[in-house]
């Protein structure tokens, strides 16, 4: 029987736990879910896990699989399960069972959360392989040999339940695919990804830094990093302006009441940074998203159908109290700069607005050599309409509209039933980077919830008051995350338009410095990002340094250049030099930047 890869990954996590229990009888276990490309298990063996342990665990896993034991499922009363895991000394499992019994959820992680009505939690399921029994929802394969190709990968620290005040555990990651070829391809991709790690390249290229005094997950961007951020956000604004978007500006804090009305308080309370004031008893938070603020700009004046669509845009930071163990370079931070926009429109305007947003996103990603690899239309779970806000007819029209937009542009899409947000259907756009990794970056979402909660209205042509449709959209999403993806996508070898430093001027000797200064100022007048190396290093060393910093264009200036007025140009990554007039160089460079060539 061919089992889904998620089932195989979950099963190999169970085998790993069994192997760990054999090698470390006192080991205590947290959770061990299937994740994208593999699996992990959080464990506590009383000391840090070391690479030698990983080898021993893998060897024991192979021994277990060679015997091809069966996975057996048992359903028992929750009280009996609590007693069993207390006897086994599995304190973490006991805690999960108590939560499940009292709250109906374990709330461990996005992968492992068990959300069940507390009134219905009478039994739980156990899975056993050989002599190892685990609390688990399953499903698992029938026999161990039905698991595909796998390999243990790495060790990381993880606080129990993601909270710093809880015990520190060890998270052992593994990868698992259906075939050995798929596993080998993924391992090669991991090696390439390690070379491209944005944390390493970002430090080497002086794009951003972190400070323990500022705090984890709060990146500090250098002038070079800011140049890239500005290039990205300027590009998006350039694409949006023709479609009638207008800029707005909102504060970074708000009363908690704003998020209580929007519904975000109940959903994200644990992820909010709370702000106190000595001047008032009112409760404030750092804003975790911008959409509630933007509703209040809409609500500031009476609106007519003639005023719509109303398109508001802003690049601004939001703040989310992410678990320390989940922070990772720029791809998971606490200070998130969103390229945000919200459209308030009539229902009959939705199709045109979504089409415009699609065109913007399409043009944006073309500038990075990316096309939409996969598009998902996320719709309601038709069997549970009670989970979603809005009337059936509104949902059906909205879902049909999004599908028609994709069909009109010839964009294939898959339907994700049950993947819609409770407030409306959405389109999620996935792209692949240079080494084949898939990233979900752009999204277009329809929202019936916030207009309802904030009682937003417009006066229609017949004089009646109606609710507008709100469209949320992200093109690059979080600037920090996108920049991390781009560093790895290009391996730091950015196209000329995006590079933090576009041109390096390299004087051969000190007597050429004044000429280099004049040239630098002239090029800056064309809004080129230029730096000059005035060090006493040899010109060969200056070239090597500029190559190391991956600067796209290098201009070597010496006696010949001063006398002739022509420029000697080196292109990053190429050995050959070329000679152009200054005018020809400028024409070529500015055209490449304007067209945003990759």
UniProtKB/TrEMBL annotation:
For the ligand (Zn(2+)), the binding residues are 291, 342, 472
Report which reactions are catalysed by this protein. Answer: tRNA(Thr) + L-threonine + ATP = L-threonyl-tRNA(Thr) + AMP + diphosphate + H(+)
* GO CC annotation terms, alphabetical: cytoplasm
Listed A to Z, the keywords are: Aminoacyl-tRNA synthetase, ATP-binding, Cytoplasm, Ligase, Metal-binding, Nucleotide-binding, Protein biosynthesis, RNA-binding, tRNA-binding, Zinc
Compartments, as annotated in UniProt: Cytoplasm
Q: Which residues form a coiled coil?
A: none
- Whichever gene encodes this chain, its name is thrS
What Gene Ontology terms for biological process does this UniProt record contain? threonyl-tRNA aminoacylation
Task: Tell me the classification of the organism that encodes this protein.
Answer: Bacteria, Candidatus Uhriibacteriota
The record's cofactor note says: Binds 1 zinc ion per subunit.
Q: Which PROSITE patterns match?
A: AA_TRNA_LIGASE_II
Where the record annotates domain Aminoacyl-transfer RNA synthetases class-II family profile, the positions are 223-495
How the protein assembles, per its UniProt entry?
Answer: Homodimer.
Family classification: Belongs to the class-II aminoacyl-tRNA synthetase family.
The record's annotation in NCBIfam families points to: thrS (TIGR00418)
Give the protein name, as stated in the record.
Threonine--tRNA ligase
Q: What class of enzyme is it?
A: ligase
């Amino acid at each position: 029987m061919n089992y889904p890869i998620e089932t195989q990954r979950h099963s190999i996590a169970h085998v790993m736990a069994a192997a760990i229990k054999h090698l470390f009888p006192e080991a205590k276990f947290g959770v061990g879910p299937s994740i994208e490309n593999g699996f992990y298990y959080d464990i506590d063996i009383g000391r840090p896990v070391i690479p030698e342990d990983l080898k021993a665990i893998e060897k024991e896993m192979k021994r277990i699989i060679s015997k091809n034991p069966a996975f057996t499922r048992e359903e028992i009363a929750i009280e009996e399960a609590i007693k069993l895991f207390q006897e086994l000394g599995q304190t973490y499992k006991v805690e999960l069972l108590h939560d499940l019994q009292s709250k109906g959820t374990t709330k461990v992680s996005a992968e492992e959360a068990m959300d069940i009505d507390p009134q219905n939690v009478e039994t739980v399921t156990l899975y056993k392989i050989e002599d190892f029994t685990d609390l688990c929802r399953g499903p698992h394969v029938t026999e161990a040999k039905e698991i595909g190709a796998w390999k243990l990968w790495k060790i990381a620290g993880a606080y129990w339940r993601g909270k710093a005040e809880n015990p520190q555990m060890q998270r052992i990651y593994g990868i698992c695919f259906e075939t050995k070829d798929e596993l080998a391809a993924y391992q090669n991709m991991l090696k390439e990804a390690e070379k491209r790690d944005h944390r390493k390249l970002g430090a080497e290229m002086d794009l951003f830094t972190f400070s323990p005094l500022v705090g984890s997950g709060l990146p500090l961007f250098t002038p070079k990093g800011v140049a890239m951020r500005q290039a990205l956000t300027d590009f998006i604004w350039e694409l949006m302006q023709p479609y009638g978007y207008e800029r707005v500006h909102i504060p970074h804090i708000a009363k908690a009441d704003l998020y209580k009305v929007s519904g975000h308080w109940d959903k994200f309370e644990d992820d909010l940074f709370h702000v106190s004031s000595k001047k008032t008893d009112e409760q404030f938070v750092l804003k975790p998203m911008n959409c509630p603020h933007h509703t209040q700009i809409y609500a500031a004046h009476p609106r007519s159908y003639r005023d719509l669509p109303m398109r508001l845009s802003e690049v601004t930071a939001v703040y989310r109290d992410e678990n320390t163990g989940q922070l990772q370079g720029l791809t998971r931070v606490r200070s998130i700069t969103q390229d945000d926009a919200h459209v308030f429109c009539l229902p009959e305007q939705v199709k045109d607005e979504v089409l415009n947003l699609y065109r913007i996103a399409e043009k944006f990603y073309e500038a990075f050599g990316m096309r939409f690899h996969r598009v998902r239309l996320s719709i309601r779970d038709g069997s549970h309409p009670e989970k979603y806000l809005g009337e059936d007819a509104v949902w059906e029209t909205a879902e049909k509209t999004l599908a028609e937009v994709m069909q009109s542009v010839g964009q294939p899409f898959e339907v994700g039933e049950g993947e819609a947000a409770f407030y409306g259907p959405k389109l999620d756009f996935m792209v692949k980077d240079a080494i084949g990794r898939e990233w979900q970056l752009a999204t277009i979402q329809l929202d019936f919830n916030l207009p309802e909660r904030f009682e937003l209205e417009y006066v229609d042509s017949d004089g009646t008051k109606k609710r507008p449709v709100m469209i949320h959209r992200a093109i690059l999403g979080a600037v920090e995350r996108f920049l991390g993806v781009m560093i790895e996508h290009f391996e730091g070898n950015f196209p000329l338009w995006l590079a933090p430093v576009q041109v390096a001027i390299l004087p051969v000797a000190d007597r050429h410095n004044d000429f280099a200064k004049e040239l630098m100022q002239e090029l800056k007048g064309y809004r080129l990002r230029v730096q000059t190396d005035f060090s006493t290093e040899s010109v060969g060393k200056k070239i090597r340094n500029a190559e190391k910093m991956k600067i796209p264009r290098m201009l070597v200036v010496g006696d010949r250049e001063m006398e002739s007025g022509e420029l000697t140009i080196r292109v990053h990554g190429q050995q050959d030099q070329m000679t152009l007039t200054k005018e020809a160089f400028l024409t070529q460079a500015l055209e490449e930047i304007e067209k945003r060539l990759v």
